[in-house]
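Hi all, posting the design record for the shared folder.

TITLE: backbone redesign
STEP: 1 of 1
STRUCTURE INPUT:
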């Protein structure tokens, strides 16, 4: 396991981080005991960064994670959670007000059985008024940072342009990290276009979803996946190519996503300890860069053919 600092935070985190969304049953029902064991396994194998949100499972993920954290020494991990996106009774909800942000931090601490959050993020800012994020939500979190309740402040979003806009419209040092998903993987490396910018601002980068929410797996995408059909077809062909070479695409995808030293950590989520062990084993082996190029060529060529025929 390699370790990289998140920007200038002083947090030196494992290149592979534990995303706790699965503990909330976000993708399918889980066995709570196995979910808790997956957290223990991650820590035992050297993963020291855990990311969660009250939104995942509408508070369930934080609750289950909290049960695990009670039995893990606090100095063995960094914990990241979020504010702004929530849910209740199966319905999604958003509230980026300063008042709700502070309340949310206190509620998360209670669910997680901790008294300090290492990194607090404004969650999925694409659903917010970016001006409110810059002028209300983030100042509230900075105040908590100054009071010592949280260590560092970040923002998360799928849209990289939104992350840049908020950074450009807040005082230097407000945003210390960004979390972006599905943009540094075998089928999409858009994040690389923004790495120099984030680094110039002293901001750490957290990557998530190395499998692109199922695109880069033998199982394939779930029905709700937003990817266009040409991309789904391209990734399926890439998977078959890897399988023919006896090199699971999951292994290649995981290796690729942790390969960039300018990205502090890559998050993957599971509630199964066997998956934790498998993914850690994947990144301990050398990556086949020739196969990476072949897969990226297949994906690019297949999409071009599909678009040309559409």
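Okay, here is what came back for every position:
SEQUENCE:
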């Amino acid at each position: 396991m390699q370790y990289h600092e998140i920007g200038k935070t002083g947090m030196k985190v494992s290149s592979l981080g534990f995303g706790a969304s699965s503990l909330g049953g976000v993708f399918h029902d889980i066995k709570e005991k196995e979910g808790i064991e997956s957290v223990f396994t991650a820590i035992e194998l050297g993963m020291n960064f855990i990311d969660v949100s009250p939104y995942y499972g509408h508070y369930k993920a934080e609750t289950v994670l909290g049960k695990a954290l009670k039995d893990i020494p606090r100095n063995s991990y960094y914990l990241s959670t979020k504010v702004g996106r929530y849910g209740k009774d199966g319905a999604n909800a958003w509230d980026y007000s300063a008042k709700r942000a502070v309340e949310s931090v206190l509620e998360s601490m209670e669910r997680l059985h901790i008294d300090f959050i290492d990194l607090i993020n404004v969650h999925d800012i694409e659903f917010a008024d970016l001006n409110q994020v810059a002028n209300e939500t983030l100042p509230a979190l900075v105040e908590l940072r100054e009071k010592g309740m949280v260590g560092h402040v970040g923002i998360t979003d799928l849209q990289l342009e939104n992350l840049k806009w908020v950074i450009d419209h807040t005082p230097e040092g407000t945003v210390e990290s960004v979390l972006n998903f599905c943009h540094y993987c075998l089928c999409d490396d858009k994040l690389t276009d923004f790495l120099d910018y984030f680094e110039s601002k002293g901001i750490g980068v957290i990557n998530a979803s190395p499998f692109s929410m199922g695109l880069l797996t033998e199982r394939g995408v779930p029905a709700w996946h937003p990817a266009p059909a040409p991309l789904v077809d391209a990734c399926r062909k890439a998977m078959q190519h890897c399988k023919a070479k006896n090199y699971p695409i999951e292994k290649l995808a995981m290796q690729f996503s942790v390969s960039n030293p300018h990205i502090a950590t890559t998050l993957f989520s599971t509630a199964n300890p066997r998956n934790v062990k498998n993914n850690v084993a994947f990144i301990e082996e050398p990556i086949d860069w020739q196969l990476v190029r072949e897969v990226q060529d297949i994906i690019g060529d297949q999409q071009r053919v599909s678009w040309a025929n559409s």
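COMMENT: The chain is about 40% helix and 20% strand.
Let me know if anyone wants the other runs.
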